Amino acid sequence: MLDDFMTRATLAGIGVAFAAAPLGCFVVWRRMAYFGDATAHAAILGVALALAFQISIFVGAMVVALVMALTVTVLAGRGYAMDTLLGVLAHSALAFGLVAVSFLSGVRLDLMAYLFGDILSVSRTDLLVIWGGAAVVVALIMWRWSALLTSTLNEELAYASGLNPRQEQLVLTIALAITVAVAIKVVGVLLIAAMLIIPAAAARGLSRTPEAMAFIAAAIGAISAVAGLQGAYVLDTPAGPSIVCVATLLFAGLNIVGWRSQGDG
């Protein structure tokens, strides 16, 4: 079954959707959209370093994404607004990454794949890395689910409950770095934030509980991956952007239905 490239691509897309869904819910709840985007942009520097030192792309992207996220967390509140700090670090890392890639022979032609994904070239090894990373992310979120929710709702309540909100932020940071690393092959660094935010945002209006929102977001992400790949195959369009387009259409459609239901009520 895994000999077929479309089967591997579909499984890869679903794996990324499962990793991004619960994490994306916390990104939406905590209003961390720009934080996720900045972390994803930094991953291109990790790709360049991985290629330069001939190590795994997954490892390079994850390490740099984690360093970026931890740097932002440490420097936040030390004289700079969060959005300013994110803007400086995100665009600087992206620029340095693109310049670094230009010095590596034989890499220039693959640059678009790293920026927008190349899901159709996913190998069995890539599939193992994607699903392994997704399993780690889901396990992390499930392990700290109650603590993460409490810290997200109210930091003072978290402290009163014996929790450390900064420690929960670290859990999210690690999960975000892993998700960025596994999603590079599927949607590329420029579209990772979209797969984090759009399915979660689309699920928000359909959910009565946080847990339901995470499950619905995973379903929307998986549907987007499958439908986007089929659309790309039929229409001969880029696969990664096609997946994001389907997710956006689902978000728009679900919101329109929700508005009409509210109007009728």
SS elements, strand count: 0
Order of helices and strands: HHHHHHHHHHHH
Full CATH superfamily name:
ABC transporter involved in vitamin B12 uptake, BtuC
CATH level 3 topology: ABC transporter involved in vitamin B12 uptake, BtuC
What best-fitting shape do the alpha-carbon axes yield?
Answer: globular
| Number of contiguous helices | 12
Highest CATH level, the class: Mainly Alpha
**Largest sheet geometry:** none
Please name the CATH architecture: Orthogonal Bundle
What portion of residues belong to β-strands? under 5%
Helix/strand-derived category reads mainly alpha
In percent, how helical is the residue content?
Answer: over 70%
Radius of gyration (CA) equals: 18 Å
**Residue-averaged pLDDT, rounded?**
85
What count of domains describes the coordinates?
1
